[in-house]
Amino acid sequence: MQILSFNFFLYTISGMWRPIEWSSKCFKMLYSMFTCFTMCLLIILFLAQLLDIILVIDNVDDFAANSLLLLSVISVLFKAVAAVTRRDKIVNLIETLQKKPCRAYNEEENDIQMKFDRLIRSYSISYTSLASFSATGAVIGGVLNILEGELPFRTWVPYDYTSPLLFWITSIQELVALIFATIVNVATETTVLGFCLQICAQFEILEHRLQRMAKEKKKETFRISLNDASNETGRLSEHILHHLCIIRLAKIINNVFSQVIFVQFFASILVLCLTLYHLSSHMTIADFVTLIVYTLCMFVQIFVYCWAGNEVMLKSTGLSETVYQIDWILMPINERKDLLMIMKRSTRPIKFTSSFLVTLSLESYGNLLKATYSAFNLLQQS
């Protein structure tokens, strides 16, 4: 089964990921047209929102309300561009996870892999359900605006949309763009989460291999020969290569999604404080319910990134504890040195970062909430 199949299925229906197994030139061309169509919808929505802020809006309340969707669309555009332009790196990640030394060798390792695959799928479906609930509310609100003779969202368009045909075309374009933006958002968040948990699965598999090697070493203590010793050294070298492969995979994941993480963090700070400001100044029932659900989704959205990064940090440093618990006495000096190298490297946790400002961890999540509250207070006093 392909790694992260559900997550890449979401990317596929959003137009950002052509399935790897497609080889037909006709299908590739048609899907490229679908990708261009989706990107055009998102860019048009972004420009319409931006021009409305620049040309029309003249007060803080309208600016806060319109900036919510604009900032979300900006982050979605970054995610879409990252998925399309870095496809080769993502394919390389998938292929590396499916071959040696990352591939499960036996039933115990396969159970570990399946446990994390089920966890990723469960979290992805739960997050998709939450995002779908929020998007459904936004679409219903947009439909109600259409029934009142207004566009679903406040935008500026360079033509008179009062004619029924142009009005319906513009309205449908905005709603469809919102749906695709939601799918791209969900696909990216769950894919980053999935790759982080795959790194955690690899660490757990590596720990299992080291523990199994130590147990086998203990059983063979009384019948060891020179050939056996060379085999053990070769097996330990494989485990070191596996550890280096995991570190390299984490670096590639960070390189692919670093800009997305950076934009998402700062967009989330602004969106959250603008949402709280809008809630504090507009307390109608419709606005309150819609914005509460939207705010909840934003909190969960950034928490997904931070929790996933934090799990990788814990797993990467926890490897040294597993190595420490191995019976060192039974091993020759050269193997002890190799294990010491693994322990030494494990003291430096694997971190997912974007520049020096953003590190994915629960501590960063707390700092983001503090920054959001500070920005909200500043906006309220202005």
UniProtKB/TrEMBL annotation:
Q: Please give the biological process terms from Gene Ontology that the record holds.
A: signal transduction
Bilayer-crossing residues are 30-57, 63-84, 124-146, 166-187, 256-279, 285-308
Keywords (A to Z) from UniProt: Cell membrane, Membrane, Olfaction, Receptor, Sensory transduction, Transducer, Transmembrane, Transmembrane helix
Location, primary (coarse class) = membrane
Q: Where in the cell is it found?
A: Cell membrane
Q: Which InterPro entries match?
A: 7tm6_olfct_rcpt
Q: Which GO terms describe its cellular component?
A: plasma membrane
Q: Which GO terms describe its molecular function?
A: odorant binding; olfactory receptor activity
Coiled coil (UniProt feature):
none
Q: Does the keyword Transmembrane apply?
A: yes
Reply yes or no: does the keyword Membrane apply: yes
Q: How does it sit in the membrane?
A: Multi-pass membrane protein
Q: Which PANTHER family does the record associate with it? A: ODORANT RECEPTOR (PTHR21137), ODORANT RECEPTOR 19A-RELATED (PTHR21137:SF35)
Family listed: Belongs to the insect chemoreceptor superfamily. Heteromeric odorant receptor channel (TC 1.A.69) family.
This protein's name: Odorant receptor
Q: Which organism is it from?
A: Lasius platythorax
